[in-house]
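Late entry, evening session. Most of the bench is empty. Finally got around to the prediction I had been postponing all week. Sequence below, unchanged from the version circulated by S.P.
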Amino acid sequence: MACIFAGLACAPVGQALAHEMYVTNEKDNTISVIDTQALRVLRTIPVGKRPRGITFSSDYSRFFVCASDSDAVQVFDAASGRHLYDLPSGADPEQFALAPDGKHLFIANEDNAVTTVIDAGTRQVVAQIDVGVEPEGMAVSPDNSLAVTTSETTNMAHFIDATTYKPISNVLVDQRPRHAEFTADGKKVWVSSEIGGTISIIDVAGQIVEHKIAFQIPGVPSEKIQPVGIVFLRDGNTAFAALGPANRVAVIDVKTATVTKYILVGERVWHLALTPENDLLFTTNGLTNDVSVIDVKTLTAVKSIKVGRAPWGVALRAMTPLAGVVKNSLD
């Protein structure tokens, strides 16, 4: 038992633990499951139409998939890949976020400009909140008190009280915001603007944009730099941002909000996920139909893994002994 809660300390020195990365393939209606140690696809799971967002329950026993063209959030048994049931997600679910306490699922419904909230236990809709046009990004604060939805056409981050389901404020960001990610302390939320080419850092207390990160890559036209997915290392000092058709991942110093490096990956990089040890970063590359694996220590891409067509979302399934102790998944 002590080893389980000690986590990484129990692993032999230099030996990575094998976990699984689940990758949604939009055009194949499947999920590719990757072994994070062998760095190969273990199995393929059929799901609904045009799967995008994916996340896991806190114990990693189930996974949730936004099957956008099936108008459903589908729930599967992770061990067997068996489809368990669909949740009443509303029209065209794009991304979602399971609250850290595991009780509610917050879903961005692109077609009808609402955020749908589902009670994960009863499987019932408890609220639908009007937001801006074409909502996509979705995040819930670490303390379960706030939800943020980004609307692509309205160009806003919408703050919602996650207990009363009432709108709190609307924060203007740059054009076509796609993803939102809270810092671990819940004090900031980072919002990527795909067409604007920036990341807005929003102060949660004041609900104002306090800083913007722009990107410049030698030889890459500015219109191809389109940030989407964002993840943070556990220590909070470094962030990674997927830059779309720029085919790069930006490495960002969180304290100074400056880019320190660009890492070349596959074409049209969408989203990112880290192993619990924070030693490997996985990216989904929508046009080359592969996943790039980045060594976090050296900040270099070390492997390309072929998956299905148009990989989009990615989420970690932590395996024993870390299952249920460390969670790091993408909405």
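Two things to note before I forget:
The chain is about 0% helix and 50% strand.
The longest helix spans residues 2-6.
Will write this up properly tomorrow.
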